[in-house]
Specification:
With 477 residues, this protein is an alpha/beta fold. It is built from 15 helices and 23 strands. A hairpin with a 2-residue loop joins strand 4 and strand 5.
């Protein structure tokens, strides 16, 4: 099989490779992808550093054209790239194509932003002095991405980094190198100068660590686990570098007595179980007031019976497999923890056999949970959801906010009063009313509070806060 190599200083290199396995069919090898070394990473950082002076001063039209070309090609190949995503990550084909379209839209957006770069000219408090406030590119950006959105998250980090004139060393998650390789290949062929974008696939303990250890990386943007995020923070403080972290979530979905039952059930099912629950914005705590609790649980259980878990590429599949054996073990371990803690297993929790060998798990619903149980406080990152019964709105809000995380928070209600109060008082970076907690637009800020996020928001015009540094210039007339 062909080895898909790393891109360093404009050259494809690498002979050592690892297999990329399809979680829907573990007999299928998606491809062989380069396994980069610490030396490869150092060379990539050096290439990015060398390319920065010219690229940081490149014209806005050049950046626009390259980003636009990339977005156009991704859109033209959405079915092909969506199928690749579904094969390597296990997301259903319709979801995978949708994610690919979003990646294209992100590049399209930042292609436009490249033409909208602006500053401020304001008067000084001193006579005959002018003041200009502009944004400069930060420098070499280290990008580390997770496996659950293997094309969208790389897109929303790479596109703004390039738009604002930075150079890049990019390390994707080991489980999903294929989509990342495809994006880098598209940008490389779109005309990026050598060294501006460098791809080093490989182990986090090797490639990621070499990035953290380098004093030549000016900023690191990371999405992944809380534990690794803390390591990124510590290393960045040592090197006085800028860092941006998107980490875990234990997102609540509040269901009030006055909720439209169908709307509440659809939002909860989508939030908790689609994408196999493998979204940082997934709703794994359903906080339900007692007047609607029993009807809601009954309706949600019936909904879960209709969800088809199967091969990601198979027509009619609603939920694909868990991404790999390690994550599957995490999910099943938490199911056992939930049982031991005294929660009631109301539905699912069993491994499933399908026509092809894969990591298939039934959607799992616990009831009679409390907010102090581990299954209600720790991020599982799988299709495992707990229902917590509460008395009224006030208790629901307090329970929703009683978490070390603060990414996304949702409420199902027909009360304008409660919806308005919840939007104001939910301790989260994003709030959804009568919508799933997962699912966001590409042109507005993304991020959370507390243990979920650190640093400036991602996406939209707010991305400039991370990828640039502000300069104030004074001129005597």
């Amino acid at each position: 099989m062909t080895i898909y190599q790393n891109l360093i200083a404009g050259e494809w290199i690498g002979t050592n490779a690892t297999k990329n396995i399809n979680p829907s069919d573990t007999n299928e090898v998606v491809g062989l992808y380069a396994d980069g070394s610490a030396e490869d990473t150092k060379n990539a950082i050096a290439a990015a550093k060398a390319a920065f002076p010219a690229w940081s001063r490149s014209g806005i039209w050049e950046r626009h054209v390259i980003l636009k070309k990339a977005g156009d090609e991704i859109m033209a190949r959405k079915d092909e790239l969506g199928a690749l995503l579904a094969r390597e990550e296990g997301k259903t084909l319709p979801e995978a194509i949708g994610e690919t379209i979003r990646a294209s839209q992100i590049f399209e957006f930042f292609a436009g932003e490249a033409l909208r770069l602006a500053g401020e000219v304001i008067p000084s408090v001193r006579p005959n002095v002018g003041v200009e406030i502009t944004r400069d590119p930060l420098g070499v950006i280290g990008i580390i991405t997770p496996w659950n959105f293997p094309i969208a998250i790389p897109a929303w980090k790479i596109a703004p980094a390039l738009c604002y004139g930075n150079t890049i060393v990019f390390k994707p998650a080991e489980l999903v190198p294929a989509c990342s390789w495809a994006i880098v290949d598209i940008l490389h062929r779109a005309g990026l100068p050598k060294g501006v974008l460098n791809l080093v696939m490989g182990k986090g303990s090797v490639v990621g660590q070499a990035m953290l250890d380098s004093p030549d990386i000016a900023g690191i943007t990371f999405t992944g686990s809380t534990g690794t995020g803390k390591r990124v923070a510590v290393s960045s403080l040592e090197h006085n570098r800028k860092f941006q972290l998107e980490m875990g979530g234990k997102n609540p979905m509040v269901v009030l007595d006055d909720a439209d039952l169908n709307v509440a059930v659809e939002a909860a099912a989508n939030s908790g179980f689609f994408s196999t629950g493998q979204r940082c914005t997934a709703s794994s705590r359903l906080i339900v007031t007692e007047g609607i609790h029993d009807r809601f649980v009954a309706a949600l259980t019936e909904k879960l019976k209709t969800i088809v878990v199967d091969h990601a590429m198979k027509p009619g599949t609603h939920v694909g497999p868990v991404v790999d054996e390690r994550q599957l073990k995490t999910d099943t371990d938490y199911i056992e923890i939930g049982k031991k803690e005294g929660a009631k297993l109301a539905f699912g929790g069993e491994l499933i056999t399908r026509d092809t060998p894969g990591f298939y798990l039934q959607p799992t619903l616990f009831t009679e949970a409390t907010n102090q149980m581990r299954i209600s406080r720790e991020e599982i990152f799988g299709p495992v959801v707990s229902v917590i019964r509460v008395k009224d709105y006030e208790e629901a809000l307090a329970t929703a906010n009683d978490t070390p995380f603060g990414l996304s928070s949702g409420i199902a209600t027909t009360s304008l009063k409660h919806a308005t109060h919840f939007k104001r008082n939910a301790e989260a970076g994003m709030v959804m009313v009568n919508l799933p907690t997962a699912g966001v637009d590409f042109h507005v800020p993304f991020g959370g509070r507390k243990g979920s996020s650190y640093g400036p928001r991602e996406q939209g015009k707010y991305a400039a806060e991370f990828y640039t540094t502000v300069k104030t210039a004074y001129t005597l007339a």
